Amino acid sequence: MTTDGVLLVTVSGPARSGTSSLVRRLAALLRSRGFSVGTARGHVCFLCHRFSGPPRVREREEEWAHRRYGPARSRSRRRRAHALLHAAELSARTGAARLLARARAHGRPAVVLTDGGPLDALASFDPNPGSTVAALYSSFSRNRDLTLLLEVSASTLAARGWARDWPSPHDLRERYKAWAHRLPDVAPLDGEAPPSVLARAALDFVLDTERSRAISARRRAEAGARPRQIVVSTFDDAGNPDYRGGGALVVDKMARRLAEDFQLTVVTAGRRSGTRIRDGIRYVYLPVCWAGPRVGQILFQALLPLAARRVPHDVWIESFTPPFSTSFLPLFSRAPVVGVDQGRSGEALWHKYHIPFFLIERLGLRCYRNIVVMNEADAESVRRINPKADVQVIANGVEQQEVDESRFGEGEYILFLGRIDLWQKGLDLLLSAYRKGRPSLPLLLVGSGTEAEERKLRALLDRQGGDVRWLGHAEDERKHELLLGSAFLVMPSRHETFGLVALEGMSYGKPVLHFNLPALRWMRDGGDVGVPPFDVDALADGLRMLAADPQWRRRLGREARQAAQRYTWEEMTGRYVSLARHLLASGSGPDEPGPRYPDSGRPDPEPPGPGRPGPERSGPGRPSSEGGPSWPPTD
């Protein structure tokens, strides 16, 4: 590991595997995230470059190649001297790049990316494992924080123009595998994946390595002091097949960021009780999932007060759980409790089931002194219920995507992405609007839900007709492909707290068609198209007109992309860290408000200009509600 604060990452792999192009893409991604990046060549030294082909001797090229790379040659004196010269030049180049990256950092994190390194040298020279050369390169590898190994098949290497040298592509791949098992911190990557997918996977490895190193350094610096303990509770775990909602992603991002500064425990739902350590975070499972999703939520809320008495904590962050949202945790904990309103659904469930869950929800909200909400509309509502609470608005974030501008608003289908819940997500309204509007693009429904909700959706689709397809749950890579290939997203929800899916679509440059709910006002003038709430005819017109106007979609997509760039996970999760530090320092209550954020998690509206819509216009005979532009401006 490096000790000078500079992260050293090596991209390794056989020639023609794409290491140089990955270094360029990875460097650009890291710079866009505020890193100071230095690069260095590590595949070839002076002799490799000078004698890349056979010397001018009277022998066939194949014979020279075998003599150059063969087992006997690999352990000759000249070969050992070449390996030592290569090591010296690699060390010099890496050191120079490290000094340059550190000089340019100015307080930012610094990274050095090398195209090739110790693993490539070991695979090329193939020294005896107990030799001086092997020991030297192994020590160099221990100084690397991360080695990314591109795994490419022998047939692909041959198709990319592999030189007719010995060893063959297959033999060299085997060498890489053998030496990779001997070296630390080697992460394999699928070298045959699309370049953008490969670069994102490499970026995740680098960011995880930097985060782990920061955690280790902080823990070493705080050795001897009792670590402050933060607990985050959430029913919607990422591994729960019944939900997999956006709330689970938000909690995961929040937890990983908090774990960099505190000792973190996540209390969540499971089929049986137990404890598990994952990525340095302790997970405590409450045994409730055996009862099903609905009853499981109620049992989870009933067990949370018991968990608050048993799990040590200095601050407890509770992600509200339906149907009652709150669990009255402040009554059972002496430490500060922060309620996070990602799904306060008492009133929505009242309209759906006609059971007054909201009465218990309102009573519970009055127990909390610190509450986080996702939008200003919910903040106003919570302040009316509990005027003494310190209510903070912390919006969600999104991973910034690399998308060509020509893809903004361009695609082959309309996309609904979210949990399958007919009433809350408004899927019945969407299917009726699609049937009435008859847009020129097919409709894809992507998501999963409980068995009961999925049965209802199948029944509706059997009667629907038209070009509507339900694809089920989509994992990250498939989700990326679906978002990239969509023309625009539709969000027909009856109830939302933020709309994380909309923000994800906006990051790809895709417009979002939605009902003008108060909770979705943050999208205003951000490439969205708003229609009056629950007006099926207006939604049908929006589907038809957006599908028929690529130029309008392209302009809205550009605005959506610009708006999404204001929401980053680093900023949003950093606000939770600031709030936790304030509570630990002062025991914040109603008379001691937490840190304030001037923008409240909302982007500042931009003035109308070229390519931006002017005043809203309504459709034929229908006034426009508060929200984004209802119809295309008549330029």
Short description:
Residues 585-635 are annotated as: Disordered. By secondary structure, the chain is α/β, with parallel strands linked by helices.
Tell me what you see in this structure.
Helix 20 (500-507) links the parallel strand 17 and strand 18. An eight-stranded mixed beta sheet has the order 8-9-7-6-10-11-12-13, sandwiched between helices. The chain has a six-stranded parallel beta sheet with strand order 16-15-14-17-18-19, sandwiched between helices. It is an alpha/beta fold. The protein folds into three domains: 6-219, 3-Layer(aba) Sandwich (Rossmann fold); 227-393, 3-Layer(aba) Sandwich (Rossmann fold), CATH 3.40.50; 410-564, Glycogen Phosphorylase B (Rossmann fold, 3-Layer(aba) Sandwich).
List keywords for this structure.
alpha/beta, P-loop_NTPase, 44% helix, 3 domains, Rossmann fold, transferase, D-inositol 3-phosphate glycosyltransferase, globular, Glyco_trans_1, six-stranded parallel sheet, 23 helices, glycosyltransferase activity, 635 residues
